[in-house]
Structures are given as structure tokens and as C-alpha cells.
Design goal:
Layout lengths: L26 E4 L6 H15 L5 E4 L5 H8 L4 E5 L3 H10 L2 E5 L4 H6 L7 H7 L3 E5 L5 H8 L4 E3 L2 H13 L1 H5 L2 H11 L2 H18 L1
Parallel strand pairs: 1-2, 1-4, 2-3, 4-5, 5-6
């Protein structure tokens, strides 16, 4: 907007969990299902089925409408588990091999979600699990994660299958960004550091007056 500014990030209390690889891999999306996110989630689920019939995207969240329910029901690669409590969210995030965040690729959402930043991103970064983001370029979340090399970021539909194939077959690929992600969470997404940043901003404002 022009004037100098600072960012206060969303915070997380998540800690990296001890990992035990699942067979088949546990791939999970947890969060809001509004804003036609189901379209990208179904693409992911369908692509996983092309790679292996054993692979599915497990989805947790509240179904917003019938079109989302119908889309999930019609996709063999979606395992919809419903809405869960935050305590369950923490457990699922910690035990998953791959965590997914997705946004719709239609032009309306590209424009209106430009500055959106999901609250679950901080939890995913801190979890110690592989983090995959499937969303258009130039969104705040995709630019942030790419800039810090903290997640596998897929911004074109044709890139989705090659990346999923790599992640599902290569343990080293899944681990590639985990250490960076955890460090980023500790640097930008803890309550202590964000509280300190906000206090400094307020103190600096008072001094200027």
C-alpha cells in the first residue's frame, strides 16, 4: 500500500512429531472447504489414484454445500472423514506423511485470494511433515513458501502429477524442505516472537509521536 510496513504472522504451538512412515502413505488435507477448494482437492485425489490405487487424499473439514459433497463422493481418491476437533487436527498433522494445502485455480479466486494466508500453514510448517501446496502463483502463501523454500509448491496443474509421483516414491524428496520449514516456523510463527515484534511496533509508534 505504499508506506513501510511489517508483518505479524499467524502463530502455532505445533512441535515436530516423531515420524513413522505409513504404508500406504498418509496424505491429508485439514481445514476450510469453502471457496471451491474441492476442485483442487479432487484433482489431487484423482492424480493419486493414477499413481497407485492405494493412495488417497484424506480430507477433514466441514462440507459447505452439496456440490462439494457430490464431488468428493464421485472421486475414488478422496477419503472424506468429516469435521474434527483441533486436538484431533494436531494428532493427524503429526502422524501424516504429506500435508496438503490447496486453493482453486479459477480467475475469480486468483484475484480475491491474492493476500489470503491460511491459518493451517503455520501448523503444517512446524509439524515436521512434508508440506505440499497446490495453488496459483502470486498468492501470498505460494510466494512466501517459495521464497523461504519451505514447501513443495505446485502452481500449474500440469506440474501436479510429476511432483506427487516424486513425493510418493522418494523419501528424500519428502524430507527436502522439512528442516527449512521447521526453522521458518520457529522464526516467524511462534507466539513469543510475534508478541515481541508487535510490542516493538507499538513502542516505535509511541516514540515517533
Amino acid at each position: 500500500f505504499g508506506p513501510a510496513s511489517q508483518v505479524i504472522h499467524t502463530v502455532t504451538q505445533m512441535k515436530p512429531a516423531e515420524k513413522h512412515e505409513n504404508d500406504p502413505l498418509q496424505i491429508a488435507y485439514l481445514g476450510n472447504l469453502d471457496l471451491d477448494r474441492y476442485k483442487s482437492l479432487v484433482q489431487i485425489g484423482s492424480t493419486l489414484q493414477e499413481i497407485s490405487p492405494d493412495l488417497k487424499l484424506t480430507v477433514y473439514g466441514k462440507i459447505p454445500d452439496q456440490k462439494t459433497q457430490d464431488a468428493f463422493d464421485g472421486c475414488a481418491g478422496i477419503d472424506y472423514r468429516g469435521f474434527v476437533s483441533y486436538d484431533q487436527v494436531v494428532q493427524i498433522i503429526g502422524s501424516s506423511d504429506i500435508l496438503v494445502h490447496a486453493e482453486c485455480f479459477e480467475d475469480f479466486y486468483k484475484k480475491n485470494l491474492r493476500y489470503a494466508f491460511s491459518t493451517k500453514i503455520a501448523d503444517s510448517l512446524a509439524s515436521g511433515s512434508c508440506f505440499l501446496v497446490y495453488a496459483p502463483e502470486k498468492l501470498a502463501c505460494t510466494e512466501y513458501l517459495r521464497r523461504h523454500k519451505a514447501a513443495w509448491v505446485v502452481t500449474e496443474p500440469e506440474e501436479l502429477k510429476p511432483v506427487l509421483e516424486k513425493l510418493c516414491t522418494d523419501k528424500a524428496a519428502r524430507a527436502a524442505y522439512v528442516e527449512t520449514a521447521v526453522k521458518l516456523a520457529r522464526e516467524n510463527h511462534t507466539q513469543e516472537k510475534n508478541t515481541a515484534r508487535f510490542q516493538k511496533i507499538l513502542f516505535d509508534c509511541v516514540k515517533k509521536d
